[in-house]
């Protein structure tokens, strides 16, 4: 809130918005799935339901609901904006610093539905980013580029408004490039001037006045501001003054009230639910999307209707709630559901990092989250255009630990009956039934599950029939496997340490029981690399724990194979090797599985390019392995350290994606 004292306007809004609490409560009763409801007013007053303690940041709290993604999305229509920055010699010093800060704040009022360009001008106008020759989407990435370029501007020369406005109108009236095609705006930041550039407006904007011009007089000066006021009023805009840094935030966002007037006059026709990108909720709910709708002041002032937006209503939806509506377990371990917005940004995707704190809206494009494939561009375009359909693509997906590539998705579904033997059986908790208690201890969870099923029929509305039937069948089959097959085998004869079976329904059985105590694989088969890799592999899949150091002894490896395309049988074997030749077993990701050389036994699980870079390079040159490179757009990078030495072969090979060319 920009008012340092509680003004009558704020007190009045606190009073009348109190009635919203009854509406919030009634909404929650009608729809228990509602998480948080919020109202943000045009003056900065915010009401949340349910109430929650405010999370005070470690630094100065600059929270303003009018700068939150959901408020910006709901408060105005999409915009095409050109920001003109006067960089003549008269704006040097403090005035230039204020202008830079003001432009940065102005960029923060834009969303991904807007298009923008920033130009500096004195005698001549030019884009601050030379490669941005036209309006570009106001996404997080582009706004960061603009902000950096704005900070590097220097003041010199004399002011020529005509050059700046000529540049801006050409940008806005160019219909051959992507744009919002709604509001057209010019924002002029200057210290003042005498020229009104009337002939430019007559040429480009009059009499229809399709472009609004907002002017900002920045800094402490004694220049005549009448020309700036005339420019704004003659072009359906508004004039603002920014004398100090304290006036920047409020004055760079009040233009939204002006843009909201046509929406108010349009009434219910302009009331459409707008959805935000994925963003981090300010009160700790996590990653959410918000449905927003503007709230209009429909009162009359004499003979004229009020044209002000009162604020924006918003309803938060957590990503986990959306995921619960998707048929994840019907698609198989290598199948997944993804969703994108009209800009191509991800709403749901397994590669969307939900546990990372994002200070800004998440704008991860679908193509950035996927392994590169030209046909995926077509999928993205058809989804944005709203065209239904289906497409079959032979592609690769990343493994869970992101060091391997596995083939495309598979889908399975089975039904059957239940047998459980506690102590050697793991069951990953899925939402089989709504009121099933989640116990941290696996044995306790199994006992609770059995007790729950005894007292509740499987066809109850409390349970997911598909998951229950699949669980019953898989449990019965692996029980037969353990009691009729594994029990009669002498593992020592084969040199096996243990056997285990993981199923599509989430049940994993380990034999013998004593090995279950040291079981450290993910209890959810869908999250296990050995399971996902085995499903689409016709032969055996060898795997070892990924290691980066050499401080751990490797004594066993996993060998898995898909059985009936659903069950994964994994055998742990002791490595015996011959010493008369170099013998390596490398998995399809280029990681060492076993070696007959004792000095390499501690390197099991390490990328083979680090074990023997010359041999790995030879395998690559002979097309035994192929390189697949991807980028993590949601990761942060450490500052690069300077080095005067060239990269070694190991450096060139390390941390690259490798796949066996012979496998697919």
UniProtKB/TrEMBL annotation:
InterPro entries: Ca_channel_alpha-2/delta, VDCC_a2/dsu, VWA_N, VWF_A, vWFA_dom_sf. One of its GO terms (cellular component) is voltage-gated calcium channel complex. The keyword Disulfide bond applies. It holds the Pfam family VGCC_alpha2. Keywords: Calcium, Calcium channel, Calcium transport, Disulfide bond, Glycoprotein, Ion channel, Ion transport, Membrane, Metal-binding, Signal, Transmembrane, Transmembrane helix, Transport, Voltage-gated channel. The chain crosses the membrane at residues 561-586. Gene3D superfamilies: PAS domain, von Willebrand factor, type A domain. It is a single-pass type I membrane protein. GO terms for molecular function: metal ion binding; voltage-gated calcium channel activity. It is found in: Membrane. SMART domains: VWA (SM00327). The keyword Transport applies. Residues 80-259 form the VWFA domain. Belongs to the calcium channel subunit alpha-2/delta family. This is VWFA domain-containing protein. It comes from Denticeps clupeoides.
């Amino acid at each position: 809130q920009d008012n340092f004292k509680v003004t009558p306007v704020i007190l009045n809004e606190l009073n009348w918005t109190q009635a919203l609490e009854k509406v919030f409560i009634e909404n929650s009763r009608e729809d228990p799935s509602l998480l948080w409801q919020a109202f943000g007013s045009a003056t900065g007053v915010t009401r949340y339901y349910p109430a929650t303690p405010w999370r005070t940041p470690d630094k100065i709290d600059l929270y303003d609901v009018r700068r939150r993604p959901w408020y910006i999305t709901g408060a105005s229509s999409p915009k095409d904006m050109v920001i003109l920055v006067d960089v003549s010699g008269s704006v040097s010093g403090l005035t230039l610093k204020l202008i830079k800060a003001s432009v940065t704040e102005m960029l923060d009022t834009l969303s991904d539905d807007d298009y923008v360009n920033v130009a500096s001008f004195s005698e001549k106008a030019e884009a601050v980013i030379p490669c941005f020759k036209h309006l570009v989407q106001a996404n997080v990435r582009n706004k960061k580029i603009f902000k950096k370029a704005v900070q590097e501007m220097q003041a010199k020369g004399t002011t020529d408004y005509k050059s700046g406005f000529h540049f801006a109108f050409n940008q806005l009236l160019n219909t051959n490039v992507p744009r919002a095609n709604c509001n057209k705006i010019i924002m002029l930041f200057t210290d003042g001037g005498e020229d009104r550039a009337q002939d430019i407006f007559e040429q480009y904007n009059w009499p229809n006045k399709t472009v609004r011009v907002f002017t900002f007089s920045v800094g402490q000066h004694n220049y005549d501001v009448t020309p700036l006021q005339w420019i704004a009023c003659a072009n359906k805009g508004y004039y603002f003054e920014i004398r100090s840094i304290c006036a920047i935030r409020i004055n760079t966002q009040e233009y939204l009230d002006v843009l909201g007037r046509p929406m108010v006059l349009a009434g219910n026709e302009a009331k459409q639910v707008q959805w935000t990108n994925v963003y981090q909720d300010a009160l700790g709910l996590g990653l959410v999307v918000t449905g927003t709708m503007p709230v209009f002041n429909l009162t009359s002032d004499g003979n004229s209707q009020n044209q002000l937006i009162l604020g924006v209503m918003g309803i938060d939806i957590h990503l986990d709630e959306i995921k619960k509506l998707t048929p994840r377990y019907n698609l198989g371990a290598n199948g997944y559901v993804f969703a994108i917005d009209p800009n191509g940004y991800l709403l749901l995707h397994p590669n969307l990092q939900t546990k990372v704190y994002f200070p800004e809206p998440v704008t991860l494009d679908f193509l950035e989250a996927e392994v590169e494939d030209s046909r995926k561009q077509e999928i993205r375009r058809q989804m944005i255009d709203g065209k239904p359909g289906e497409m079959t693509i032979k592609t690769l997906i990343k493994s869970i630990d992101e060091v391997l590539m596995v083939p495309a998705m598979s889908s399975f579904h089975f039904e059957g009956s239940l047998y459980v033997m506690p102590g050697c059986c793991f069951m990953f908790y899925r939402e089989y039934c709504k009121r099933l208690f989640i116990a941290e201890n696996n044995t306790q969870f199994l006992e609770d599950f059995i007790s729950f099923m005894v007292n509740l029929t499987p066809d109850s509305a409390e349970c997911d029939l598909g998951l229950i039937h699949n669980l019953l069948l898989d449990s019965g089959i692996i029980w037969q496997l353990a009691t009729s097959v594994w029990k009669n085998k002498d593992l020592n004869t084969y040199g096996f340490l243990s056997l285990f079976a993981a199923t599509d329904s989430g049940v994993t059985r380990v034999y013998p029981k004593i090995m279950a105590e040291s079981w450290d694989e993910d209890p959810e088969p869908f999250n296990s690399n050995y399971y996902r890799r085995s499903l689409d592999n016709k032969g055996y899949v060898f795997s070892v724990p990924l290691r980066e150091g050499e401080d751990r002894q490797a004594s066993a490896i996993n060998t898995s194979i898909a059985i009936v395309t659903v069950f994964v049988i994994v055998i742990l074997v002791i490595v015996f090797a011959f010493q008369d030749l170099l013998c390596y077993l490398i998995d399809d990701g280029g990681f060492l599985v076993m070696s007959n050389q004792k000095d390499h036994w501690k390197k099991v699980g390490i990328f083979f390019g680090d074990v023997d870079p010359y041999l790995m390079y030879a395998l690559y040159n002979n097309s035994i392995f192929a390189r697949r490179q991807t980028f993590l757009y949601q990761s942060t990078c450490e500052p690069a350290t300077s080095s005067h030495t060239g990269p070694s072969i190991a450096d060139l090979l390390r941390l690259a994606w490798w796949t066996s060319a012979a496998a697919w």
